[in-house]
Design a protein that fits this description.
Strand content of chain A: 15-25%
Radius of gyration of chain B: 17 Å
Structural class of chain B: mainly beta
Shape of chain A: globular
Oligomer: heterodimer
Largest interface: A-B, 36 and 38 residues
Number of helices of chain B: 1
Largest sheet of chain B: 4 strands, antiparallel
CATH topology of chain B: Archaeosine Trna-guanine Transglycosylase, Chain: A, domain 4
Largest sheet of chain A: 7 strands, parallel
Number of helices of chain A: 15
Chain lengths: 390, 107
């Protein structure tokens, strides 16, 4: 194996995973308990539960379905069991069929069809157990680094974020894109406020440029339509503790993590990140759990969470590597700090050193090293919703 | 030598970020582009927070990263702590929405 390769799990659809998970997906709140109980029983099975999937308008249904399908067909997913309650707007059988189309093992369990939760639980456990055993027999094989997609998110940002850890993160993602032919994806559209013009100038063409500006304006309109002052929500209290004063300041710092290279496209929440090499934007809120959930659905293999004050933010399917440049945070919350690069901010180290620290950790993680949040079983899952329930 | 723990991102910025605790009354040297500026710290400032590095009048733009991060809501003399108590944002301000829009929302 050379430097251009990592050891991954090959899929029939051409993608390569860095993990080999069995996921159990709920299609509605009434299947969540069955999913959680089954995942408790089957070793390493990941439960995907949420309060959505019924009484939603079409745009939200598409978004929920797309997000669930994204996790069930993620490169890091070996196979998936779908658990539905009854007939719902997010159809369990249809979802299982779409999963099977990618060549992954899939099964559909319906609580009503099984005459109740006990039978449904048994079938779910049996199915997931078989997948987990088959997955464990699959071997990692050398694969090209160009297959990798690098997700980027910030969390509990403070003023150190834009000055330090975001720079190392930007250098690392562009190393994957420029040197290895991989992909990057960042998000959090309301956190472009104040930097949207400069960001849009990085678009590869006028169409993408206009799309970026329109999506930023749409978020500003949505926020204003609440009739309230968004200063009550952004920056968040932990951001303010860390010295961030306004959403504009938070945004300008946040954009540092995307570097300054060209933007190929801005895609919908939870949509698959294109396979062509380059940097993409996903249109998500700044809400970390929702944003990270969207990028995971897009198929990012791993995510770098660039944090100021430290954060539990993580994802079970897409490993998260947390980096901070705030020396106080690295000391206060060591369990939220995979990579501490504060020496580049207040010590004698360079940003090249910081980039190498992060890159080395990324290489270890894509080859199988578990991150802090994986080792601790930390994960949050929150699908962003657009409109009201009906 | 400018204090390395006071960071000014762009030479046009009128605030610096403190990467150490600042004490009221101390005199600091701030590097602004190629120049050096002397500022007397007006009040204690904790790690990560900002100070004005020039006198900023009420209503004037606060500039960091060479861009507006909001407006001063009161006069902010050089050396003063700059934060949510004396700066306001210009984005997502539903409270400033016009009557017509407020009407649409209430319907």
């Amino acid at each position: 194996m050379n430097d251009n390769q990592f050891l991954g799990y090959e899929r029939d659809d051409g993608s390569v995973g860095i993990r080999n998970h069995t996921v159990i997906v709920s299609t509605a709140p009434y299947a969540n308990d069955t999913v959680k109980r089954a995942a408790d029983i089957v070793e390493d099975a990941i439960p995907i539960t949420h309060p959505l999937g019924r009484c939603q308008t079409k745009p939200d249904v598409f978004q929920t379905y797309r997000t669930l399908l994204g996790y069930a067909t993620h490169p890091n997913t070996y196979g998936a069991v779908v658990v539905a309650h009854a007939g719902e707007i997010v159809d369990g059988d249809e979802l299982a069929e779409d999963i099977a189309e990618t060549g992954r093992p899939s099964d559909s369990v319906n609580i009503h069809r099984e005459k109740g939760v006990m039978n449904a639980l048994k079938r779910t456990v049996n199915s997931a157990q078989e997948m987990a055993q088959d997955a464990s027999a699959q071997k990692r094989v050398p694969s090209d680094m160009s297959n990798l997609t690098f997700g980027i998110n910030c969390a509990t940002s403070d003023t150190t974020s834009g000055l330090c850890q975001h720079k190392a993160t930007a250098n690392a993602v562009w190393r994957l894109i420029d040197d290895y032919g991989g992909r990057g994806c960042f998000a959090e559209t309301p956190e472009f406020f104040g930097g949207e013009n400069e960001l849009s100038e990085r678009a590869v063409n006028d169409e993408v440029k206009q799309e970026i500006l329109e999506r930023v304006e749409h978020w500003d309109d949505r926020l204003q339509a609440t009739g309230y002052d968004v200063r009550g929500a952004q920056p968040t209290p932990d951001n303010m503790d860390g010295g961030l004063t306004t959403i504009e300041e938070k945004s300008l710092g946040a954009l540092v993590k995307s570097g300054d290279g060209p933007i190929q496209d801005i895609i919908d929440y939870g949509a698959k990140i294109p396979r062509d090499s380059g940097m993409y934007i996903m249109d998500t809120p700044g809400h970390g759990a929702e944003s990270v959930t969207g990028i995971g659905a897009g198929g990012a293999h791993f995510m770098v969470i660039s944090t100021g004050q430290g954060h539990t933010l993580s994802n079970a399917v897409m490993p998260t590597i947390k980096i901070t440049g705030n020396p106080g945070s690295a000391e206060r919350v060591p369990e939220e700090t995979d990579v501490d690069v504060s020496e580049a901010l207040v010590g004698d180290e360079s940003f090249d050193w910081a980039t190498d620290q992060l890159w080395d950790e990324i290489v270890d993680v894509v080859n199988g090293k578990v991150t802090l949040s994986e080792a601790l079983g930390e994960s949050q899952f929150a699908i962003h919703r657009i409109g009201p329930s009906t | 030598m400018p204090d390395r723990y006071l960071q000014v991102v762009e030479p046009t910025d009128n605030v610096a970020t403190a990467l150490r605790e600042l004490e009221a009354g101390e005199t600091v040297s701030v590097g602004v582009g190629d120049e050096e500026r002397t500022v007397e710290i007006a009040e204690d400032v904790i790690f990560g927070h900002k100070i004005a590095i020039e006198d900023i009048a009420s209503g004037e733009t606060i500039t960091k990263y060479g861009k507006s991060i909001g407006n001063a809501t009161e006069d902010i003399p050089a050396g003063t702590w700059v934060h949510v108590h004396n700066v306001e944002s210009n984005y997502g301000r539903g409270d400033l929405a016009d009557d017509e829009q407020a009407k649409v929302v209430s319907e």
